[in-house]
Structures are given as C-alpha cells and as structure tokens.
Amino acid sequence: MNLRSDMLRGLAESLIALEGDHPLRVAIDGITASGKTTLGNELTSAIAEREHPVIRIRMDDFHHRREHRYRQGKDSARGYYDDAYDFDALNQHVLKPLGPNGNRAFRRRIIDLASDTSIDEPVELAAPGSVLVVDGSFMQRHHRENWDVVIFVNTSFDEALRRGTDRDAEQFGGHAEAQQRYADRYHAASRMYIGEVNPAQAADFVIDNDDLSSPLLYRNSM
C-alpha cells in the first residue's frame, strides 16, 4: 500500500467534489522547506489524472523585486516576512479573477526570479470548474478570505531544516551557511507567522509531513 498516493487521491477527490460557481482556489501553506512545492506538484497531477481542469501557480513567481524584498537586509527575518512576496499582485491577478463574479482571466507569474525581471505575459482564461493550486509561505497572512481551501503542510522545524539545507547548501556556500540562513531568516520568519496566525489551526486541511512516505491528513473544517 502506498500511503502517500492514497492520501493524494483522497485529497484530490475531496477538492474536486467542492466544485462551485467559480474555480476552487486552493492554497498550500507551510514553513520554508516543509514540502509545499512537492505536494503542490503531486496534487496537481492527481487532479489532472482525474481529467479535471487544474491550474498550477507558485508564489516564487509572485515575489517582489530584489530591491524591495531585501530592503530590510538579506538576512532579516522581518524582511522576509514582510517583503518577500507580492500577495496583493496575486490577489489582483489570480484570486479575484477566479473568485465569485470574476472573469476567469488570470496571470501565471509576474517575475522571473532568477533574473529579477518583471514579466507582463498575456492573461489566460481558466476553464469553468478548475482547481487552482498555489504553494507558498505565509499564505494565510493576507487575503485569507479569497482562498476557498487552505492546506497546511505541517513539518517540524528540525526536519524542514534538514531538507532545506540539503537542498540549498550549494546555493548558500555550504551546509553551515545554509543552516545559518534558515535560522536567521527563513525559519525565524516562519516562527513569526506561526505566532501571529496559528496557520495549522486556521487551515481547512493539515498534512503531517515529517514522514514523506506516510503523511497523515486531517480535516479541520468544511
């Protein structure tokens, strides 16, 4: 038995069953390196496999420009929490158009993160009944009312640190440097978020994700 596949299948079917009069807007929330992007990709595939229209967007494509997101310093936890992501742009270009009385015309991204270049691509038209899947940090801090479903990926800081430093060591110049960046900036900001928002409690679904092969799915509401 593949417990992760079973969980994804059940979650995908639960979301499809929530179809309403506008696309279902699903946020995947969690601390840095919790497994949000992996879950978002897997969930998108599980929905598509059921021949249901799905839209995949990442908050990495809705960052602020470097000048804005580092204005409090590259190592600042407060700067990461306040300045990294452009949630207002996501709301304007994605959540509202796909919401009640929206025209379903949305944009997939506003920035090329690697080159720090703004992007103005043509809008796309979402199919009726689509499921939107967006992963990112701090997803319940702004415009919470415009998410139809929030999934919180609940991963311990120790496990997320292990995953994050393995993933980002080369980028940051080694494991020690990556661990320091996580401690000072990314996970320090995540602790601010947990203290302010209590995102696991506020989410509709919670996935305990320390054991990737055996995630546990909980439903808080709905």
TrEMBL record:
Residues 27-194 form the Phosphoribulokinase/uridine kinase domain. Pfam families: PRK (PF00485). GO terms for molecular function: kinase activity. InterPro entries: P-loop_NTPase, PRK/URK. Keywords: Kinase, Transferase. This is Uridine kinase. It comes from Mycolicibacterium aubagnense. The lineage of its organism: Bacteria, Bacillati, Actinomycetota, Actinomycetes, Mycobacteriales.
